[in-house]
Every structure is written in C-alpha cells, then in structure tokens.
Design goal:
The structure is a single chain. About 80% of the residues lie in helices and about 0% in strands. The chain contains 8 helices and no strands. Helix 2 packs across helix 3.
C-alpha cells in the first residue's frame, strides 16, 4: 500500500477547500472573489497532491494545449471581472483536461455499494454506459 505524505494530505485539503469555494462562488451568483480563491486553492492542492513536476507535465502536454489554454484563460477572465463567461470557458477547459479520467471515475463509482445501485438503474445505466464508453448498444 502506498503511504500518503503530509504534503499530499495538505493537498487534498487545499483541493477540497478549492472545490468548496468554487461551489459557493457559483451558488452565490458567480461571486468573483470566491471563484478566484477556489481556483487558486484547487490548483495549489493539485500541485501538492501530485507534485510540481507532474503538475507541469499534466497541464503542458502537447495534446492538452487547447484544454490548458481554455482552463487558464477562464481563470484569467474570472479574475478580470467576468465570472460567468470565465467559468464557462474554464469548465470547458476542465472537461477537455479531465475527459480521459471520466470513464475511469464512472467505472469506479459503479463498484461503490449505494452509488453503484443507483448508477445501474435502467435509464441511468444507459447514460453511464455511454459516458464510460462501454461497448454495446444504447437502445
């Protein structure tokens, strides 16, 4: 089993607070300050969890240039005062960055006891199968 370092524990806390601030910023009608703090905490938490070098290599891979550009442009747009437009641009960049991780997350959630039961309900299972990229018909 892999041991979790203190830096990684701090990183999980920072990323968690970042997601919480982003959620509150959206909930409070796109509050610019909360969104900016949430972005900074999320990026610093990610850096603490996976390390500085891995963070740089994750964001600046050749095939992720478009996604990284949208993500950081959205952060900048939020900072200059257009939170709704900035969050839309940032969410598009985040979707492009983490789209390879979504099928893995869906397949993991299918194995969690209560959540897996909900995800295997008839209509929801069609959607999760499509998101996870399972072979077979959606019909």
């Amino acid at each position: 089993m892999m041991e979790v370092t203190d830096f990684q524990k701090i990183g999980v806390g920072l990323a968690g607070f970042g997601i919480a601030f982003l959620f509150l910023g959206v909930l409070l009608i796109f509050d610019r300050g909360l969104l900016a703090i949430g972005n900074i905490l999320f990026i610093s938490g990610l850096t603490f969890v996976i390390g500085f070098q891995r963070t740089l290599s994750f964001f600046f891979q050749r095939h992720k240039v478009k996604a990284t550009t949208f993500f950081f442009s959205g952060m900048f747009i939020v900072l200059i005062g257009f939170p709704l437009v900035g969050m839309c641009v940032e969410l598009y960049g985040m979707f492009l960055l983490f789209s390879g991780f979504i099928p893995v997350a869906v397949n993991f959630l299918r194995r969690v006891p209560v959540i897996g039961t909900v995800l295997n309900l008839p209509f929801i299972s069609m959607i999760t199968s499509w998101v996870a990229g399972d072979s077979g018909s959606i019909v």
